[in-house]
Amino acid sequence: MVASPGIKEGTNLKAACPEGFERHGTGCYKALESNASWPEAKVYCSVLGGDLAQIEDDVENTIIMGLISRLHVSKDDEYFWLDGSDILSENEWRWMGQKGASQPMTFTNWRQGQPDNGWGSEHCLEIVHDKWNDDRCELPRSFICEAQ
């Protein structure tokens, strides 16, 4: 057996996830039904050993949608925070990361007409109806945490 880079041979990948997270590919994910603002969700994920989820490709987007659909029969009634924001510079959407380690988004899945900064202060990324939307960071939402 050949181990993946950075993972010791014989390592049980499932055991490497923080408690309550589930492994999908190289990431560990946890969907939380809660009413937290975007900053609160970032802190909560950090306490759990991760950060808000970053979606870097269509496969990861499908994984996140699977987590949400397992919580709800319909994806239409729930909004979940992700790690994206344009709070540093309007319309420059980035994955914020931790401790200032932001990076530009290379994959997006915006709803038609989004992002639109509709209220003049929509700087945080949510996923709803299987597409992305910008919204006000102080709104209470559920959220997806990711850990490596």
From TrEMBL:
<dbReference type="InterPro" id="IPR016187">
    <property type="entry name" value="CTDL_fold"/>
</dbReference>
<feature type="domain" description="C-type lectin">
    <location>
        <begin position="24"/>
        <end position="146"/>
    </location>
</feature>
<dbReference type="InterPro" id="IPR001304">
    <property type="entry name" value="C-type_lectin-like"/>
</dbReference>
<keyword id="KW-1015">Disulfide bond</keyword>
<protein>
    <recommendedName>
        <fullName>C-type lectin domain-containing protein</fullName>
    </recommendedName>
</protein>
<dbReference type="InterPro" id="IPR018378">
    <property type="entry name" value="C-type_lectin_CS"/>
</dbReference>
<dbReference type="InterPro" id="IPR016186">
    <property type="entry name" value="C-type_lectin-like/link_sf"/>
</dbReference>
<dbReference type="Pfam" id="PF00059">
    <property type="entry name" value="Lectin_C"/>
</dbReference>
<dbReference type="InterPro" id="IPR050111">
    <property type="entry name" value="C-type_lectin/snaclec_domain"/>
</dbReference>
